[in-house]
Specification:
2 copies of one chain form a homodimer. By secondary structure, chain A is an alpha/beta fold. Chain A has 2 domains: about 5-105, Rossmann fold; about 120-265, Rossmann fold (3-Layer(aba) Sandwich). Chain A has helices at about 20-30, 45-60, 75-80, 95-105, 120-135, 160-170, 185-190, 210-220, 230-245, 255-265, and strands spanning about 5-10, 35-40, 70, 90, 150-155, 175-180, 200-205, 250. In chain A, the strands form 2 sheets. In chain A, strands 2-1-3-4 form a 4-stranded parallel beta sheet, with helices on both faces. In chain A, strands 6-5-7-8 form a 4-stranded parallel beta sheet, sandwiched between helices. In chain A, strand 5 (about 150-155), helix 6 (about 160-170) and strand 6 form a beta-alpha-beta unit. Chain A is elongated. The relative contact order of chain A is 0.10. The interface between A and B is large, with 72 and 71 residues.
Chain lengths: ~270, ~270
């Protein structure tokens, strides 16, 4: 088969499918010349459900191109059924369980895993509380309980504060607030007053002026706010401000929210 | 070693570490009798960095309990260095690359994967736009562009609408709005007027009265709003409303936001 043909890929799971998708996609990024047609099938918990998934995959295999199958199903019944399909099955659990059983001297439970389940109830609840905190403290909306923030993101408008804050809260359970930096701050060459007691919790974002101008243009085409000149001024001023307060910062232009969040956790030494 | 001893676990990655954590934790849920002391070390991109991680793990190994190491590092130099450590190394990439090379008839690129990187720029941008949409349409805050919503979550206050909406947007790039159901809706036994043109996009949440009462009590102790009686009334009324409009719904009491999001994607057949 040529690389141009669309190779069907199935991410299968007895839970949400997120793990299968994520590791499967990491592996697929190693084969950039190929094109893939991705499907996720979550919540395959019974042999009957597994059999109907096998039928789908076999139907696809019959039409020409052998599908790739990434599975994180845990129950051995389900795994054995999925293994009978006519795809190339990459069993992301089965491949490693034996090694762990040997290392730990214990049999695997064989219970469907819930890496994305409620898990530890207190930990789950703290993530939900963190989301609530992030919503309340988005874009400088509230000064209440700012001392509870583990990190306060600061940046000019549209540098990625909100999605990064939400990701820190939702994925990592971090209490994160965010504050906009505006012309007034740049004229005073100082952080907003209400943030000054919390400088050590601040983390700055910056980006490239051209990119910021493009993003702002989508909101307010032709406005001074979106002009390259104004964007350049705000970013230079913000970076100067970060440096004068020794606030660590990151350029959001070439990295994802996931990467920014991981960097912030690491640089601020945050406990989850 | 007894099961009670704390086994050190390292999640290592040349990117964010999220994949290593997630699949590692799925595997660890198979060994519930053990206790683990978890550490994540992201962004290991050079042999020098890998060597300093090996030193950390070896130091820990020297103090008694052999660490478990889950790695998603992709570069073969980094992987070879990590493989020299005195932990039990579960190589989540190396174990599968060979199988894929054979299946696809192509050599793996060996470039560090960025499953959580920017990836496809348009897809990444649409996730960020989805977060913006979700923020703007949280808790019925805006009726603007409601026709753009792919799904509208409806539920009484504190059933988990906001975190689920945020997860749909941030992880899956879904345009999701959410609306509270309130006494007025229950008295009329009808959906809010502004939602009626969009019934087919609605998805309901419910929970258990006791749990809802506990959550509301944290907010407003002793209020009628938090009373078991009021919570029971609202949930029964909401469920009746979902059924009369044939709105699919899920009980959020025993499932995580990740599980709810996966269920919503599946039941509403949403395209990401």
């Amino acid at each position: 088969m040529s690389h141009d043909e669309l190779r069907p890929v199935y991410f299968l799971s007895d839970s949400t499918g997120i793990t299968a998708e994520t590791l499967g996609n990491t592996l697929l990024t190693q084969f950039p010349a190929h094109n893939f047609d991705r499907h996720t099938i979550p919540f395959i918990t019974t042999v009957e459900q597994a059999q109907s998934v096998v039928n789908i995959i076999d139907g696809r295999a019959a039409s020409g191109v052998q599908p790739l199958v990434f599975s994180t199903a845990v129950s051995s019944d389900v795994r054995q059924t999925l293994a009978t399909c006519r795809g190339i099955v990459v069993d992301l659990i089965g491949a490693h369980v034996g090694q762990l059983e040997q290392a730990l001297g214990t049999q695997a439970s064989g219970e469907p895993g819930r890496a994305h389940g409620l898990g530890n109830a207190a930990r789950y609840q703290s993530r939900m509380t963190a989301v609530e905190y992030a919503m309340e403290h988005d874009d400088g909306a509230s000064l209440r309980a700012l001392e509870k923030a583990q990190v306060i993101l600061v940046a000019p408008s549209r540098c990625g504060k909100t999605p990064t804050t939400m990701y820190l809260a939702l994925q990592h359970g971090i209490f994160a607030a965010n504050f906009p930096l505006v012309d007034e701050d740049f004229e005073r060459e100082g952080l907003p007053k209400s943030l000054q007691p919390f400088v050590s919790k601040c983390f700055g974002l910056t980006t490239n002026a051209l990119r910021l101008s493009q993003i702002r243009t989508e909101r307010r085409r032709g406005s001074p706010y979106a002009s390259l000149r104004q964007c350049g001024f705000e970013l230079r001023s913000a970076e100067r401000l970060y440096e004068s307060y020794r606030i660590p910062y990151i350029n959001s232009a070439a990295v994802s929210v996931e990467e920014m969040a991981a960097t912030i956790l690491q640089k601020m030494d945050l406990k989850r």
